[in-house]
Amino acid sequence: MAAEEYMAHSRLSLTDAQSKISDASHKAVIQRFQEYRLLLKIGEDGRKLSNLDPQTALTLARLARETLASEYELALAKLNACRQELITLQDAVDEALVYLADADEQVAQVFNILNRRRINVPGYPIPFIPNPTYDRPDSLFFTNSLNSGSSNSQGSTSYDSNEELHR
After folding, report:
1. What single-letter DSSP state applies at residue 51?
2. At what angle do helices 54-116 and 2-44 cross, to 10 degrees?
3. Cβ contacts of 145 within 8 Å, gap of 6 or more
4. Each residue's pLDDT tens digit, 103-145
5. Is 117 left (phi over 0), alpha (psi -120 to 50) or beta?
6. What burial class does residue 97 get, using C-beta atoms within 10 Å of its C-beta: 0-12 exposed, 13-18 middle, 19+ buried?
7. Is the pTM of this model over 0.85?
8. How many domains does the chain have?
9. Domain boundaries, position 59
C-alpha cells in the first residue's frame, strides 16, 4: 500500500511539474508579445532603437529583461519536469523489476511442484534478467527507489536445487 501511495505521489508530482511548464510558457508568450508590441509601435512611429527617448528605452530594456527572465523560468520548469519524469520512469522500472522477480518466483514454484509430481514440463524456467546495459544514474534522483532493501529486486530467483529438478 505504501508503494502504491508513493507511486501516486510521484505521478502527481509529475503532473504538477508539467502544469508549471504550461504556466511558465503562458507567461513567456505574454512577455514576448508585450516586447514585440512595443518594438512594433516604435517601428510604426518611425523611430530608431538607437534614438529612443529615455523612458521608452528603459521600458523596452525592462520588457526585454522580463522576456529573458520568463524564458529562463520556462527552461527551468521544463528541466524540473524532465527530472520528475525521470524519477517517475525509474520508479516504474523498479516496480516492474519487483513484479518480475515475484513472477519468476511463482514460475519456479509451479515448475518445482510439477516436477516433484513427476509431471514432465519441457524446458527449465529461465528467470528474467534485467538489461545489463541499463544503468541507473542515481545522481539524477532525489528519492529512494520503490524496492530499496529488496533482496530480490534485480530478477534473481532461487529455484530448488538442480538435483531435484533433474531426477
Report:
1. G
2. 160
3. 90, 91, 94, 136
4. 999 999 999 999 999 998 888 888 888 876 666 655 544 444 4
5. alpha
6. buried
7. no
8. 1
9. 2-165
